[in-house]
Design a protein that fits this description.
Radius of gyration: 24 Å
Structural class: alpha+beta
Number of domains: 2
Number of strands: 4
Helix content: 55-70%
Strand content: 5-15%
Number of helices: 11
Distance between the termini: 41 Å
Shape: elongated
Order of helices and strands: HHHHHHHHEHEEHEH
Length: about 290
């Protein structure tokens, strides 16, 4: 039986991580107070629900956006603790409380713009950067994905599908509360936020995984190494029709190197079969050093 070893996080790394989580929460709060709220625009998930409830319950004392977003997230943080661990729960709680505090501090600051289209675009970008920073450093500002992970174990939906269904309901609700136009701006904000979160989490060094099937394996592999500076991995394959064994090349390149890679392969073997796939993340000192 293999004993699990849990490495304790160092204090400097913990401080660094908390600073970035706080910074992400502050960016999200700036987006909400300086762009979205003044223009009746919302985001999806718990943040969107909190914004709608804040508008509907504005005359109820002590029930503001900050309080609502913390209260609504607490059950999801508890389940996050059960499913993911205490580090995630503590990081999420710290990020959510930071969001609530900074949002209150910005409550009386003049908005950056009263143009809904500008608010949707730049508010979405700023919110995406903020939420992405929090997620990248081990926390969360929104519990709907945690709920999705729990429920999709019992329902025939993916997490993405579940979150989409929830957000359709939220934006439909927003259309009744704020009007159809503001709901459409909200959908635009959500899309921009979603794409920005992906960029922040994955980074700008987008990579592609390439599988190459060629009868000239050695020449192609050597050319990729000499002309592109990328090492390759040799895989064993077997043709489905011929049942003959084939050598398959696997290589990871940056998106800027894809065209050069295709030209290299085409020069040596115009009949080579290439499959180019997006990668979620690429780790390894050799790959990173080759980029920089």
């Amino acid at each position: 039986m293999i004993k699990k070893i849990h490495k304790k996080e160092s204090v400097p790394h913990l401080i660094y991580r908390l600073i970035l989580i706080f910074l992400g929460a502050a960016f999200a709060a700036m987006s909400i107070e300086l762009f979205l709220v003044p223009n009746d625009i919302i985001d999806g998930g718990i943040i969107g629900i909190s914004l709608i409830l804040d508008h509907l319950l504005e005359k109820v004392p002590f029930l503001n956006f900050g309080t609502l977003v913390v209260l609504l997230n607490i059950p999801f943080m508890y389940y996050g603790y059960k499913q993911i661990g205490k580090t995630f729960m503590y990081s999420s709680f710290f990020g959510t409380v930071s969001l609530a505090v900074v949002e209150r501090l910005l409550h009386h600051v003049e908005p950056f713009t009263n143009q809904p289209i500008l608010a949707a675009v730049f508010g979405g970008l700023l919110l995406g950067v903020g939420v992405g920073l929090v997620i990248r450093h081990g926390g969360s500002l929104d519990g709907t994905e945690i709920l999705g992970i729990l429920l999709t174990k019992r329902l025939p939906f993916s997490v993405g599908e579940f979150v989409m269904f929830i957000n359709i309901f939220i934006f439909a609700w927003a259309a009744f509360v704020f009007g159809a136009e503001q709901a459409m701006y909200s959908v635009m904000t959500y899309y921009i936020t979603f794409k920005t979160i992906d960029t922040v989490i994955q980074g700008l060094d987008e990579t592609k995984a390439v599988i190459i099937v060629s009868d000239h394996y050695e020449e192609v592999s050597e050319a990729i190494l000499s002309r592109l500076g990328r090492g390759t991995t040799k895989l064993k394959g077997k043709g489905g029709f011929t049942d003959h064994e084939k050598d398959v090349i696997y290589v990871v390149v940056t998106r800027l190197e894809v065209t050069k890679l295709k030209n290299i392969v085409s020069d040596i073997d115009p009949n080579a079969f290439l499959t180019i796939m997006n990668t979620q993340e690429t780790r390894g000192a050799r790959f990173k050093s080759a980029i920089h």
